[in-house]
Amino acid sequence: MTSVADLMDYDEVVARFDPMLGLEVHVELHTKTKMFCGCANEFGGEPNTHVCPVCLAAPGALPVVNGVAVESAIRIGLALNCEIAEWCRFARKNYFYPDMPKNFQTSQYDEPIAFNGYLDVTLDDGEIFRVEIERAHMEEDTGKSLHVGGATGRIHGADHSLLDYNRAGVPLIEIVTKMIPGTAERAPEVARAYVSALRDLLKALDVSDVRMDQGSLRCDANVSLSPKDSGVLGTRTETKNVNSLRSVERAVRFEMTRQAAILAEGGEIVQETRHFEEASGTTRAGRRKETAEDYRYFPEPDLVPIAPSREWVEELRLTLPEMPAERRKRIKAEWSLTDAELRDLVNADAIDLVAATVEAGATSVEARSWWVSYLMQQANTRGVELGALPITPAQVAKVVALVNEGALTNKLAREVVIGVLDGEGEPEQVVEARGLKVVSDDGALEKAVDEALAAQPDVADKIRDGKVAAAGAIVGAVMKATKGQADAKRVRELVIARCS
Amino acid sequence: MPSISRDEVAHLARLARLAVTDDELDLFAGQLDVILQSVSAVGDIATADIPPTSHAVPLTNVFREDVVRPSLGQAKTLAGAPAAEDGRFRVPRILGEEA
After folding, report:
1. Which H or E run contains A405?
2. What is the CA radius of gyration of chain A?
3. Paired sense of beta strands B63-64 and A128-140, if any
4. Which residues contact B38 (CB under 8 A, 6 or more apart)?
5. Which of A295, A438, A453, A496 could form a disulfide with A460 if both were Cys (CB 3.0 to 4.6 A apart)?
6. Contact residues for A50 (Cβ-Cβ < 8 A; gap 6+)
7. In this complex, do B71 and A96 lie within 8 Å of one another by their Cβ atoms?
8. Which helix (H) or strand (E) holds A161?
9. Does the pLDDT at position A443 exceed 80?
10. Stretch 190-249 of chain A: residues touching chain B, C-beta under 8 Å
């Protein structure tokens, strides 16, 4: 266990050391079927129900590559500005561990389908940082283990383990950066921004659900430190189990402060796999490997090589969507946003939601104000991501329209939104069920106005004397009496008419 | 000079989780050496104009349509498992006590 005393203050870390980053991202493709067989590729499901002789490596079972997965891999490579291999093979990575029933993982070794690319990442202050991509290769995901009998569900101390192979064989693309130098104090931010940009890119390509919380996008962060300006490469650690963008940033920062403290005392960094602990924001050492890894990779004999023709690659290049960075530039101009407003939208992960709301009829100003303020608050209160709120952009646009028609005040509109979020149906149904219609019946309003004027005769006199500003007190009283269900503008008109 | 050492055989045996006795190591190292020597004869005739072969058939780009086919179902999947629990394969403790 690392205590606070074992960490170096972050400012001191960056004054004394240069960090070196390397990031490996695994992304599950959302193809209909697995990589090498026709079993459904679905998250969840009863254990071991998406399993066949190929996933289980039953004798005689033969894998066949999913063509859509290869297309996705090439499109990812192209979007990352990679070269696409003219010829490449799958390889067997041999290891004994029960998460693969085959005792090997079908992967790619020295012949990745895509290599030598880059991704330009926008940092919080708008600066562009280029992250070089080493490779993107195709492989398959492993099964899920449940460790039974240990105190914490961890493998340590477990009595036995239970395996569900539904996920074994799901198409996986591993995207590996080259070493990322020169990030200095911004290393944690660059790491987060890279994973964020990559996630947006993969989402735009529509190749994956990119849900970090469900494991369809996973990041391993390699971090090492070298004494400032020494140019000497330090020993790195690899931190796994980093399941959110925020965790990527925290994990890198933590490793920097931990490693710096060890180095400052003349200690040595152990090259090891570490696990990020979400609750404490720390990393802990994983299992030490007693021997060096020896996976005995060899070409997969059951799968023929892949040789994407240049024509095919160019066809796939034409299917690439507008890249997120370009889209942001366009949206920034179309919606006349400031840098800060755009950043708020990006950080709230709200661009798609706002765009869809605009498409459904709202203006970008109206849509933005709902999503980044009120709905964001609701998401925080309910502890979910903005996009996971049970309200659609169309419903938000409907609420906006009702306000514009004068059927709802802003206050009532918020109540309608709460109703939708609480599962009470469409906005119109909530209005109906909760009785949230604006009181537009002049008869009822006039009565309320008269009562308010009678209750505050001095104010009424002031208005009669031409002090129109005093009308606010009467409007307030009427709004209170009608429980906010009146249109304040109309009430004001009536107050002034009554007093003239 | 043998083409495979006794230590290498011991390493491979460990990777393959094979319990091999000292006597067997001597025996297998000798036998594997004979096999490797025989196979290496291929290297003598390989020239620059003969590319290495990893596949017996001259095919590339054999792809499957992305169409779901029926899986086995849980019962059949687990039918051959030495042990199962809660619809899952049950395996012995993965890490030893010292881990």
Report:
1. helix A393-405
2. 29
3. unpaired
4. none
5. A453
6. A34, A39, A40, A41, A42, A166, B71
7. no
8. strand A160-164
9. no
10. none
- Provide mean pLDDT across the span A55-72: 95
Nearest C-alpha of chain A: how many angstroms from B59?
6
Which residues from chain B sit within 8 angstroms of residue A146, using beta carbons?
88
Q: Do A48 and B87 touch (CB under 8 A)?
A: yes
Minimum-distance CB partner of B66 among A66, A156, A162: A66
> B30: Cβ–Cβ under 8 A, 6 or more apart, which residues?
B2
Average pLDDT, stretch A23-47?
A: 96
Contact, A208 vs A30, CB < 8 A? yes
Please say if the pLDDT value at position B98 is more than 50: no
A-chain residue closest to B70, CA distance: A39
CB-count exposure of residue A238 (10 Å: 0-12, 13-18, 19+): middle
Cβ neighbours of residue A168 closer than 8 Å, sequence gap 6 or more: A51, A55, A99, A100, A101, A140, A141, A142, A143
- For A133-148, what is the HEC assignment? EEEEEEEECCCEEEEE
Interface mutation target, options A29, A32, A37, A48, chain B, most CBs of B under 10 Å: A48
User: Which ipTM value was assigned to this complex?
Assistant: 0.87
pLDDT of A438 over the 50 cut: yes
d(CA B89, CA B75): 11
% of chain A surpassing 70 pLDDT: 97
Give the class (CATH, top level) of A442-498.
mainly alpha
What is the average pLDDT across A330-335?
Answer: 93
CB within 8 Å: A97 and B72: no
Residue A169: DSSP 8-state? T
Q: Is residue A355's pLDDT more than 80?
A: yes
Would you say residue B62 has pLDDT above 80?
yes
Residue B65 in contact with partner chain A when CB distance is under 8 A: yes
Q: Is A161 on the interface with B (CB under 8 A)?
A: yes
| pTM confidence score | 0.81
Q: B23 to chain A, minimum CA–CA distance in Å?
A: 24
Of A229 and A115, the structure prediction assigns the larger pLDDT to: A115
One-character DSSP codes across A263-320 = HHTT------EEEEETTTTEEEE-PPPSS------EE-TTS--B---HHHHHHHHHT-
Taking an 8 Å cut-off on Cβ atoms, the answer to whether B93 and A301 are in contact is: no
The three-point CA angle B79-B82-B83 to 5° equals 90
Span(s) in chain A for CATH 1.10.10.410: 442-498
Rank A59-73, A267-281, A393-407, B3-17 by mean pLDDT and report only the highest. Answer: A59-73
Instruction: Choose among B61, B88, B89: nearest Cβ to A306.
Output: B61
Average pLDDT, chain A: 91
**Number of residues that make up chain A:** 500
Report which of A49, A53, A65, A28 is spatially closest to residue A142, judged by C-alpha positions.
Answer: A28
Q: Give all domains of chain B, ordered by start, each with its CATH number.
A: 1-39 (1.10.20.60)
Structure tokens at A172: 């996986």
Rounded to a whole number of angstroms, the distance from the CA of A36 to the nearest CA of chain B is 8
Q: Would you call B68 and A305 a contact, using CB atoms and an 8 Å cutoff?
A: no
Over the stretch A172-184, which tens digit does the pLDDT of each residue have?
Answer: 999 999 999 999 9
